[in-house]
Amino acid sequence: MSANDIKITNLTGQCVPVRGNDIDTDRIIPARFMKVVSFEGLGEAAFYDIRYNSNGKTDHPFNLDVYQDASILLVNKNFGCGSSREHAPQALMRWGIKAVVGESFAEIFSGNCTSLGIPVVEVDSADIGRLMNAAEETPNMNMIIDIESMTLNFGDFEIEARMNSAARNALMTGSWDSTGVLLDSGEEIDAMHESLPY
Amino acid sequence: MGRNLFNKVWDLHRVKTLDSGLDQLFIGLHLIHEVTSPQAFSMIKERRLKVRYPERTYATVDHIVPTLNQSRPFEDELAEKMMLALEENTVSNGISLFDADNENQGIVHIIGPELGLTRPGMTIACGDSHTSTHGAFGSIALGVGTSQIRDILATQTIAVSKPKVRRIQVTGKPGPGVTAKDIILKIISELGVNGGIGYAYEYAGPAIRALSMEERMTICNMSIEGGARVGYVNPDETTFEYLRGRRFAPEGEAFDKAVEYWKRIASDEDAEYDDVYSLDISSLSPMVTWGINPGQAVSIDDNLPRLTDLDEGSADVAAKAYEHMGFQEGSQILGMPVDVVFIGSCTNGRISDLRAAAAVVEGRKLAEGVRGLVVPGSKHVAMQAEREGLPGVFISAGFEWRNAGCSMCLAMNPDKLKGRELCASSSNRNFIGRQGSPEGRTMLMSPQMAAAAAVSGKIVDVRELMGGEK
Question: What is the domain count for chain B?
Answer without folding.
Answer: 2
